[in-house]
Protein backbone atom coordinates (compact mmCIF):
# COMPACT_ATOMS: atom_id res chain seq x y z
CA UNK A 1 0.00 0.00 0.00
CA UNK A 2 2.82 2.41 0.78
CA UNK A 3 4.33 1.82 -2.61
CA UNK A 4 0.97 2.48 -4.22
CA UNK A 5 0.57 5.74 -2.34
CA UNK A 6 4.07 6.89 -3.27
CA UNK A 7 3.38 6.11 -6.88
CA UNK A 8 0.18 8.12 -6.76
CA UNK A 9 1.94 10.98 -5.00
CA UNK A 10 4.70 11.01 -7.56
CA UNK A 11 2.11 11.13 -10.31
CA UNK A 12 0.38 14.02 -8.58
CA UNK A 13 3.65 15.88 -8.08
CA UNK A 14 4.58 15.26 -11.70
CA UNK A 15 1.21 16.57 -12.79
CA UNK A 16 1.54 19.60 -10.48
CA UNK A 17 5.02 20.26 -11.80
CA UNK A 18 3.73 20.22 -15.34
CA UNK A 19 0.95 22.60 -14.38
CA UNK A 20 3.39 24.97 -12.73
CA UNK A 21 5.74 24.89 -15.69
CA UNK A 22 2.87 25.85 -17.95
CA UNK A 23 2.33 29.01 -15.89
CA UNK A 24 5.84 30.35 -16.20
CA UNK A 25 4.56 33.36 -18.06
CA UNK A 26 2.56 34.53 -15.01
CA UNK A 27 4.23 36.60 -12.26
CA UNK A 28 2.73 37.11 -8.80
CA UNK A 29 3.53 40.14 -6.63
CA UNK A 30 2.28 39.93 -3.06
CA UNK A 31 3.03 42.62 -0.46
CA UNK A 32 4.61 41.49 2.79
CA UNK A 33 2.25 41.00 5.69
CA UNK A 34 4.46 42.91 8.12
CA UNK A 35 4.37 46.09 6.05
CA UNK A 36 2.29 48.39 8.29
CA UNK A 37 2.03 51.23 5.78
CA UNK A 38 0.66 49.01 3.10
CA UNK A 39 -1.89 46.58 4.46
CA UNK A 40 -2.94 45.57 0.99
CA UNK A 41 -4.00 42.02 0.86
CA UNK A 42 -4.19 41.32 -2.75
CA UNK A 43 -1.95 40.06 -5.45
CA UNK A 44 -1.50 41.68 -8.78
CA UNK A 45 -1.13 39.37 -11.66
CA UNK A 46 0.63 40.39 -14.80
CA UNK A 47 0.38 38.15 -17.84
CA UNK A 48 3.12 38.46 -20.31
CA UNK A 49 1.70 37.82 -23.77
CA UNK A 50 3.07 38.84 -27.15
CA UNK A 51 1.32 41.50 -29.20
CA UNK A 52 -1.46 40.04 -31.34
CA UNK A 53 -0.40 39.43 -34.94
CA UNK A 54 -2.02 41.49 -37.61
CA UNK A 55 -5.40 40.24 -38.68
CA UNK A 56 -5.08 37.75 -41.52
CA UNK A 57 -8.28 39.08 -43.03
CA UNK A 58 -6.96 42.63 -43.02
CA UNK A 59 -3.69 41.55 -44.61
CA UNK A 60 -5.40 39.59 -47.37
CA UNK A 61 -7.78 42.45 -48.04
CA UNK A 62 -4.91 44.93 -48.34
CA UNK A 63 -3.07 42.63 -50.72
CA UNK A 64 -6.21 42.12 -52.78
CA UNK A 65 -6.84 45.86 -53.06
CA UNK A 66 -3.23 46.45 -54.04
CA UNK A 67 -3.32 43.72 -56.68
CA UNK A 68 -6.63 44.89 -58.14
CA UNK A 69 -5.43 48.50 -58.28
CA UNK A 70 -2.26 47.48 -60.08
CA UNK A 71 -4.21 45.31 -62.51
CA UNK A 72 -6.73 48.06 -63.32
CA UNK A 73 -3.94 50.57 -63.82
CA UNK A 74 -2.14 48.14 -66.13
CA UNK A 75 -5.29 47.60 -68.18
CA UNK A 76 -5.90 51.34 -68.41
CA UNK A 77 -2.34 51.93 -69.57
CA UNK A 78 -2.59 49.18 -72.20
CA UNK A 79 -5.95 50.49 -73.38
CA UNK A 80 -4.61 54.02 -73.78
CA UNK A 81 -1.54 52.70 -75.58
CA UNK A 82 -3.66 50.52 -77.90
CA UNK A 83 -5.98 53.43 -78.66
CA UNK A 84 -3.05 55.65 -79.50
CA UNK A 85 -1.50 53.00 -81.75
CA UNK A 86 -4.84 52.38 -83.46
CA UNK A 87 -5.23 56.11 -84.09
CA UNK A 88 -1.78 56.26 -85.68
CA UNK A 89 -2.53 53.23 -87.88
CA UNK A 90 -5.87 54.70 -88.93
CA UNK A 91 -4.20 57.97 -89.83
CA UNK A 92 -1.61 56.10 -91.91
CA UNK A 93 -4.35 54.10 -93.64
CA UNK A 94 -6.30 57.27 -94.40
CA UNK A 95 -3.24 58.92 -95.90
CA UNK A 96 -2.45 55.83 -97.98
CA UNK A 97 -6.04 55.62 -99.21
CA UNK A 98 -6.03 59.32 -100.08
CA UNK A 99 -2.79 58.93 -102.05
CA UNK A 100 -4.22 55.94 -103.91
CA UNK A 101 -7.36 57.89 -104.80
CA UNK A 102 -5.22 60.75 -106.09
CA UNK A 103 -3.11 58.38 -108.22
CA UNK A 104 -6.20 56.67 -109.65
CA UNK A 105 -7.79 60.02 -110.46
CA UNK A 106 -4.60 61.18 -112.17
CA UNK A 107 -4.49 57.99 -114.25
CA UNK A 108 -8.13 58.42 -115.29
CA UNK A 109 -7.51 61.98 -116.39
CA UNK A 110 -4.45 60.92 -118.35
CA UNK A 111 -6.38 58.03 -119.92
CA UNK A 112 -9.24 60.28 -120.94
CA UNK A 113 -6.73 62.62 -122.54
CA UNK A 114 -5.18 59.77 -124.54
CA UNK A 115 -8.60 58.46 -125.63
CA UNK A 116 -9.80 61.91 -126.63
CA UNK A 117 -6.75 62.35 -128.87
CA UNK A 118 -7.00 58.86 -130.41
CA UNK A 119 -9.80 59.31 -132.90
CA UNK A 120 -8.09 57.12 -135.52
CA UNK A 121 -7.64 54.27 -133.06
CA UNK A 122 -11.24 54.59 -131.90
CA UNK A 123 -12.25 54.28 -135.57
CA UNK A 124 -10.35 51.00 -135.82
CA UNK A 125 -12.12 49.71 -132.76
CA UNK A 126 -15.51 50.83 -134.04
CA UNK A 127 -14.89 48.79 -137.21
CA UNK A 128 -14.05 45.81 -134.95
CA UNK A 129 -17.41 46.17 -133.22
CA UNK A 130 -19.27 46.15 -136.55
CA UNK A 131 -17.41 43.07 -137.83
CA UNK A 132 -17.99 41.10 -134.63
CA UNK A 133 -21.67 41.99 -134.79
CA UNK A 134 -21.96 40.69 -138.39
CA UNK A 135 -20.01 37.52 -137.55
CA UNK A 136 -22.25 36.85 -134.55
CA UNK A 137 -25.41 37.21 -136.64
CA UNK A 138 -24.00 34.90 -139.33
CA UNK A 139 -23.03 32.21 -136.81
CA UNK A 140 -26.44 32.46 -135.15
CA UNK A 141 -27.99 31.76 -138.57
CA UNK A 142 -25.51 28.91 -139.19
CA UNK A 143 -24.14 30.91 -142.11
CA UNK A 144 -20.42 30.24 -141.76
CA UNK A 145 -19.75 31.33 -145.37
CA UNK A 146 -20.76 34.92 -144.54
CA UNK A 147 -18.86 34.75 -141.24
CA UNK A 148 -15.71 33.65 -143.08
CA UNK A 149 -15.94 36.48 -145.60
CA UNK A 150 -16.30 39.05 -142.81
CA UNK A 151 -13.42 37.64 -140.78
CA UNK A 152 -11.08 37.58 -143.75
CA UNK A 153 -9.88 34.05 -143.24
CA UNK A 154 -6.71 35.01 -141.30
CA UNK A 155 -5.46 36.94 -138.29
CA UNK A 156 -3.36 38.93 -140.77
CA UNK A 157 -6.47 40.65 -142.08
CA UNK A 158 -6.23 44.43 -142.26
CA UNK A 159 -8.97 45.10 -139.72
CA UNK A 160 -7.29 42.74 -137.20
CA UNK A 161 -3.95 44.50 -137.60
CA UNK A 162 -5.55 47.92 -137.12
CA UNK A 163 -7.44 46.71 -134.06
CA UNK A 164 -4.16 45.59 -132.51
CA UNK A 165 -2.64 49.01 -133.19
CA UNK A 166 -5.46 50.53 -131.12
CA UNK A 167 -5.03 47.87 -128.44
CA UNK A 168 -1.31 48.63 -128.11
CA UNK A 169 -1.85 52.38 -127.79
CA UNK A 170 -4.77 52.32 -125.38
CA UNK A 171 -3.75 49.41 -123.14
CA UNK A 172 -1.68 50.33 -120.09
CA UNK A 173 -2.50 47.96 -117.22
CA UNK A 174 -1.60 44.23 -117.06
CA UNK A 175 -5.31 43.39 -116.86
CA UNK A 176 -6.01 45.22 -120.11
CA UNK A 177 -3.12 43.52 -121.90
CA UNK A 178 -4.32 40.14 -120.63
CA UNK A 179 -7.74 40.74 -122.18
CA UNK A 180 -6.08 41.71 -125.48
CA UNK A 181 -4.15 38.43 -125.50
CA UNK A 182 -7.35 36.51 -124.74
CA UNK A 183 -9.17 38.28 -127.56
CA UNK A 184 -6.48 37.52 -130.14
CA UNK A 185 -6.28 33.88 -129.07
CA UNK A 186 -10.06 33.46 -129.21
CA UNK A 187 -10.22 35.26 -132.56
CA UNK A 188 -7.68 32.85 -134.04
CA UNK A 189 -9.81 29.93 -132.81
CA UNK A 190 -12.91 31.57 -134.27
CA UNK A 191 -11.35 32.00 -137.71
CA UNK A 192 -10.09 28.41 -137.67
CA UNK A 193 -13.48 27.00 -136.57
CA UNK A 194 -15.36 28.99 -139.23
CA UNK A 195 -12.89 27.91 -141.92
CA UNK A 196 -13.36 24.27 -140.85
CA UNK A 197 -17.14 24.72 -140.92
CA UNK A 198 -17.43 23.74 -137.22
CA UNK A 199 -20.53 25.55 -136.01
CA UNK A 200 -20.34 24.58 -132.34
CA UNK A 201 -16.67 25.52 -131.97
CA UNK A 202 -17.38 28.73 -133.88
CA UNK A 203 -20.09 29.69 -131.35
CA UNK A 204 -17.80 28.98 -128.39
CA UNK A 205 -14.88 30.91 -129.88
CA UNK A 206 -17.12 33.85 -130.81
CA UNK A 207 -18.48 34.19 -127.23
CA UNK A 208 -14.94 34.08 -125.85
CA UNK A 209 -13.73 36.77 -128.29
CA UNK A 210 -16.68 39.08 -127.66
CA UNK A 211 -16.38 38.67 -123.87
CA UNK A 212 -12.65 39.53 -123.84
CA UNK A 213 -13.22 42.61 -126.01
CA UNK A 214 -16.09 43.81 -123.79
CA UNK A 215 -13.93 43.45 -120.66
CA UNK A 216 -11.13 45.38 -122.33
CA UNK A 217 -13.41 48.29 -123.25
CA UNK A 218 -14.70 48.37 -119.66
CA UNK A 219 -11.19 48.49 -118.23
CA UNK A 220 -10.05 51.23 -120.59
CA UNK A 221 -13.19 53.35 -120.27
CA UNK A 222 -14.14 52.98 -123.93
CA UNK A 223 -17.32 51.04 -123.29
CA UNK A 224 -19.45 54.18 -123.55
CA UNK A 225 -17.62 55.65 -126.54
CA UNK A 226 -18.12 52.84 -129.05
CA UNK A 227 -21.47 52.20 -130.71
CA UNK A 228 -22.99 48.78 -130.66
CA UNK A 229 -21.62 47.68 -127.25
TrEMBL record:
What processes in GO biological process is this protein linked to? photosystem II repair
Family matches, as Pfam families: MPH2 (PF20675)
* Domain of life, per lineage: Eukaryota
Task: Give residue ranges for domain Maintenance of Photosystem II under High light 2 C-terminal.
Answer: 124-229
Query: What is the name of the protein in this document?
Result: Maintenance of Photosystem II under High light 2 C-terminal domain-containing protein
Specify the species: Manihot esculenta
Amino acid sequence: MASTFLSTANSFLSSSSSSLSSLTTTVFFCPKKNNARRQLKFCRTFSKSPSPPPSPNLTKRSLSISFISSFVFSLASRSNSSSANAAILEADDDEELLERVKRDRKKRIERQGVISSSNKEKGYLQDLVYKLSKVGQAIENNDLTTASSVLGGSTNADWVQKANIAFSKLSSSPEEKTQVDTFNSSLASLISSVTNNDIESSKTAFVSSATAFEKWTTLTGLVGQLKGL
